[in-house]
Amino acid sequence: MEGPFHVSEISSRITKISPGAYILSRDGKVVHYVGRSDTDIALRITNSIGEGSGYQYFWFEYSSSPMQAYYLECEWYHKFAPTDNTNHPAVPPGTSWRCPVQGCPWS
Fold first, then answer.
1. In this predicted structure, what is the pLDDT of residue 4?
2. Which domain holds residue 6?
3. 103 Cβ partners below 8 Å, 6+ apart?
4. 107 pLDDT above the threshold of 90
5. Can you tell me the distance from the alpha carbon of 32 to that of 20, in angstroms, rounded to the nearest whole number?
6. Is 71 within a domain?
7. For residue 60, is it within any domain?
8. Predicted pLDDT of residue 92
9. How far is Cα 91 from Cα 8, in angstroms, rounded to an integer?
10. Mean pLDDT on 71-89
11. Any idea what the CATH number is for the domain that residue 26 is in?
12. Cβ–Cβ < 8 Å for 13, 34
């Protein structure tokens, strides 16, 4: 995982179009939101911070596939318990993937 970076650095830090997982924070210390993109992580982060949420910092990790991005999002969701995520990460439509975290009802 790379970061934290200020949101003004998205285009200079995320240099390829790729699936991936990310963390958003208002202060660069507390994990407020965990998300993923199955196709373009930079675009997804940009859309997430544009929703008036006050996010100022991000961490990210590229993934080799949408499945890997989903698994990473699940792991971070359980590890950091982000305050702004009201639901467990969603499984992409058309897949039957399960959460990789043991003990999770979605596993």
1. 96
2. 2-80
3. none
4. no
5. 17
6. yes
7. yes
8. 87
9. 30
10. 96
11. 3.40.1440
12. no
Task: For strands 20-25 and 57-62, give the pairing.
Answer: antiparallel
> Contact at 8 Å (CB) between 94 and 50?
no
Higher pLDDT, 53 or 17: 17
State if pTM tops 0.70: yes
Q: At 98, phi and psi to the nearest 5?
A: -120, 150
* 70 domain-assigned: yes
Q: Does residue 88 lie within any of the structural domains?
A: no
| Backbone dihedral region for residue 50 (phi beyond 0: left; psi -120 to 50: alpha; all else: beta) | alpha
pLDDT tens-digit readout, 23-59: 999 999 999 999 999 999 999 999 999 767 899 999 9
Percentage of residues of the chain with pLDDT beyond 70: 99
30/102 Cα distance (integer angstroms) = 24
Alpha helix (H) residue ranges in the chain: 10-13, 41-49, 66-80
Amino acid at 50: G
Query: How many domains, in total, are found in the chain?
Result: 1
